[in-house]
Amino acid sequence: MKPICRLLVTFALERESRALRPLTHDLPHLSILITGMGATRTRSTVEPTLRTLTPDAVLTCGYAGALDPALRHGDVLFSTLSPTLAAALEPSGALRAPIHCAERIAVTAGEKQTLRQATGAAAVEMESGIIQTLCSARQIPCATLRVISDTASEDLPLDFNQLTGADDQLDPLRLALAILRRPWRIPKLIALGRHSDQASRALAGAVNVAARALSSSP
Question: What share of residues in the chain are helix, strand, coil (percent, to 5)?
Fold first, then answer.
């Protein structure tokens, strides 16, 4: 297995990548790309990057909602068809499991239960499907690597699907107005932020281990 010389790591949100950035100062082969949320924005960001950067492998990373009731905050999952990427990810502590790519955020525990029954997946997110498709068309090894930010039994504090603009990105004004109208949701938003920070650190650790394994493969 030859070393991966150019590794592209994608995140939908800058917040998801913050814990990783301090760990990559001695990983010159690793590039981080913020794609934005959803398939449309992700395609428009990733497609030109794959043409110009031509990575040897791609990790599509970020938060996910748990569909499997056994999963907890900070659990890291991965899915890949690449034996090379699987071999690098397994020592990181990430669990191999099916991950569903959806068109919208799963907001309630009921939605998550329905998705679990329909797909059999362990977790749900929104961007990896298109990245996997783009990489497959170019024969670039790709792995989905996701961390649980909300469990299967949790309702999100707000319906974030209703707080996006025409570009499918979270609208800060709509978010602020939603919080003003529902101030009793603030404690749950704070808890979600705390769980997300915990998740980011766990994800960064897994990416760091995998990236170093890939850069030093014999």
Answer: 45, 20, 35
Answer for the pair 49, 33: CB distance below 8 angstroms, yes or no: yes
Residue 32 lies in a domain: yes
In a domain, 58, yes or no: yes
Check: CB of residue 134 under 8 Å from CB of residue 50.
yes
50 neighbors 177 (Cβ within 8 angstroms) = no
Domain assignment of residue 111, given as a range: 7-155+196-215
Q: Which amino acid is at 157?
A: P
- And the tokens for 2? 């030859």
Output phi, psi for 77, to 5 deg. -125, 155
* Strand, coil or helix: 153: coil
Tokens of 184: 């009793």
Structure tokens at 138: 């170019």
The string over 94-126, giving b where at least 16 C-beta atoms fall within 10 Å of a residue's C-beta and e elsewhere, is beebebbbbeebbbebebbeebbeeeebbbbbb
Which residues pair with residue 96 across a beta bridge? 78
Q: What is the pLDDT along the chain (218 residues), one digit of tens a residue?
A: 556 679 999 999 999 999 999 999 899 899 999 999 988 999 999 999 999 988 999 999 999 999 999 999 999 999 999 999 999 999 999 999 999 999 999 999 999 999 999 999 999 999 999 999 999 999 999 999 999 999 999 999 988 888 877 667 778 888 889 888 888 989 998 999 999 999 999 999 999 999 999 887 55
CATH of residue 151's domain is 3.40.50.1580
Sort strands 95-96 and 76-80 into parallel, antiparallel or unpaired: parallel
| Token representation of residue 168 | 């499918």
